[in-house]
Amino acid sequence: MPSQRRHHLFAWMLSLLLLGACASPAKPTLYQRLGGEAGIAQVVSRTLDRSASDARTRRSFEGIKLAAIKTSLAQQICALNGGPCVYEGETMARSHREAKITASEFDALVSMLREELDAAGVTASAKNELLRQLAPMKRDIVANH
């Protein structure tokens, strides 16, 4: 009888282990799907470098410390998407109040962001999730929305 109990106990424990091994892993966060801190920083840096030199958007970046903006935006995206970063920057409305950014400038920057996300190999679903998340910020960034 004791060996039969041990056999049942062993079978029960083995079943638990196998069920645990078969459990599907947790869905990666958007932060992870964007490539973590390094992936986010790379996409932000490339997008802002392009925006600072592109004829459609460069006016908005004149006199701006690009390195500081890159760091701040990367931290914001990281923090919003489950990463370990802490965003301590200003609100979008406050930081863009005097910038007088037009809708066409904003749209051009978003287009460059899409292209850089594609170039970084970010999946369409992750890209669309990020863009949906950032879209409401347009009203705080664009002048006279």
Verbal overview:
By secondary structure, this protein is mainly alpha-helical. It has one domain: Globins (Globin-like), CATH 1.10.490.10. It has eight helices and no strands. It has helices at residues 2-22, 30-33, 36-53, 66-80, 92-96, 103-119, 124-134, 138-141. Helix 3 packs across helix 6 (103-119).
Short description:
This protein is 66% helix and 0% strand. It has helices at 2-22, 30-33, 36-53, 66-80, 92-96, 103-119, 124-134, 138-141.
What is the count of structural domains?
A: 1
What is the 3D shape?
globular
Give the CATH architecture: Orthogonal Bundle
DSSP helix count?
A: 8
CATH class: Mainly Alpha
- Gyration radius, in Å: 23 Å
- For this structure, what is the CATH homologous superfamily? Globins
Distance between the termini: 79 Å
Give the topology, please:
Elements (H helix, E strand, L loop, with lengths): L1 H21 L7 H4 L2 H18 L12 H15 L11 H5 L6 H17 L4 H11 L3 H4 L4
Write out key terms for the chains shown:
145 residues, mainly alpha, Globin-like, 8 helices, 66% helix, globular
